[in-house]
From TrEMBL:
Its EC number is 1.-.-.-. Keywords: Oxidoreductase. It comes from Thalassospira aquimaris. It holds the Pfam family DAO. This is FAD-binding oxidoreductase. One of its GO terms (molecular function) is oxidoreductase activity. Residues 5-395 form the FAD dependent oxidoreductase domain. SUPFAM superfamilies: FAD-linked reductases, C-terminal domain (SSF54373), FAD/NAD(P)-binding domain (SSF51905).
């Protein structure tokens, strides 16, 4: 008999999972409170890159702790009461910043990102969205030699994993990006990175492909879970009950809250972030996304304008917005590039779910037959979603995934 699967969450991870399972012969229902691509997946910088294999909790975090104590940097802000209420996550997050742990995580993420980039290219073609793709790479920019030297560990890891990079001086930066003000002394150009001009629209296109192939999308909010015989039951906000043989929870930052309804507790932190689109002054143009390491922001050319995204804000998932970090990032960005009036009236905020080791959970819940997890992709869900789908579908069908799935197993937190 055809197995009925419900996938909760219509971000890049959930949509990719739903598509992959549909292709494997499952009967798939995709469910979310919003339309596909309208939550966390909407607001990223649109970059697919192996350089994302380095998690933010790496040894440089320890060196920068004195600077972060002020809680005024653009790269990292935190709400101390949240960290104190979640000491288990905070302590484990810091303990995973050791060099040996970072290399272990980098190796696992590199496999997942590489697989995802292959899968993305296949899906982009199937969805007819090739026009959104740029293959000009992206840059990490440094305003002074001290900032460049402080990034040596990251470059060492890039070299260890054979990333295609090139170190640029001020003149070479200007040759590639002549509209940037000459405030940067050095850059690392990630040459094999790709970027998309509208991440939310791409996720929506993947979802449209899913429906065209026979998948079903239901716009409802899941409120609770329960086991139902040999399967699972999802109770929605309006009191409907949806029964399935297999259930995939891919709700990103909202996954832990729903899993608590079946007494499953996951240690989760939230790397919240903000963005807004801006126009450029006459003649101003960027050829690729850039990350100003000193300024603590990313600026990416998008369909809507130039998307300015902030660094990390550690706080509760649905805590009130705090825009001081964003305002500081805008000020820094205007020093580098001729931005003019914003396109929107207010910044957008997204929540990036982060487990203590900065790796997602991909796989089955121990002793809960038919319950599968795919969340916790921190700020790199957009470039790991399709690979996650491939790994999870193989696990669900009893096949061997193309990469080692053990670093992502649920057992490391749900023994």
């Amino acid at each position: 008999m055809v197995r009925q699967v419900v996938v909760l969450g219509a971000g890049i991870v959930g949509v990719s999972v739903a598509l992959e399972l549909l292709d494997r012969g499952f009967e798939v229902t995709l469910m979310d409170r919003k339309f596909p691509g309208e939550e966390t997946s909407y607001g990223n910088a649109g970059v697919w890159t192996r350089s994302s294999l380095v998690p933010i909790n790496n040894p440089t975090l320890w060196k920068n702790l004195p600077k972060f104590v002020s809680n005024r940097t653009t790269a990292l802000r935190y709400y101390l009461p949240f960290l104190m209420r979640n000491l288990n996550w905070t302590f484990r997050f810091l303990m995973n910043a050791r060099h040996s742990k970072v290399l272990e995580t980098a190796a696992a993420l590199d496999q997942l990102i590489s697989l995802s980039m292959q899968e993305h290219m296949r899906l982009v073609a199937a969805a007819g969205e090739e026009k959104r793709l740029s293959e000009k790479g992206w840059m990490f920019l440094y305003r002074n030699p001290a900032g460049f030297e402080a990034s040596q560990l990251t470059r060492d890891i890039f070299d260890r994993f054979d990333l295609d990079t090139e170190i640029l001086d001020a003149d070479q930066i200007s040759d590639l990006e002549p509209s940037l003000n000459r405030i940067f002394s050095a850059a690392t150009w990630i040459k094999d990175a790709k970027s998309i001009d509208n991440p939310g629209a791409l996720v929506a296109a993947y979802a449209k492909l899913f429906v065209a192939k026979g998948g079903k999308f239901v716009q409802k909010s899941a409120q609770s879970l329960s086991q139902s015989g040999s399967g699972w039951n999802v109770t929605t906000q309006d009191g409907d009950n949806v029964v399935c043989d297999d259930l995939v929870v891919a709700l990103g930052p909202w996954s832990p809250g729903l899993l608590k309804t079946v007494s499953i507790n996951v240690p989760m932190g939230y790397e919240r972030g903000y963005h807004m689109h801006f126009r450029s002054a006459t003649g101003g143009h960027l050829n690729r996304p850039i990350c100003d390491a000193s300024g603590g922001y990313v600026l990416a050319p998008m369909e809507q304008g130039y998307r300015l995204t902030t660094g990390v804000e550690l706080d509760a998932c649905d805590a009130p917005e705090k825009i001081n970090q964003f305002e500081q990032a805008v000020s820094s960005a205007k020093e580098a590039f001729p931005l003019t009036g914003p396109v929107e009236n207010t910044p957008w905020m997204g929540r990036r779910p982060t487990l203590p080791d900065s790796r997602p959970i991909i796989g089955a819940v121990p002793k809960r037959k038919g319950l599968w997890l795919a969340f916790g992709h921190q700020h790199i869900g957009f470039c790991t979603g399709p690979g996650t789908a491939r790994v999870l579908a193989d696990l669900m069908t009893g096949q061997s995934p193309p990469i080692d799935a053990k670093p992502f197993c649920a057992e490391r937190y749900l023994a």
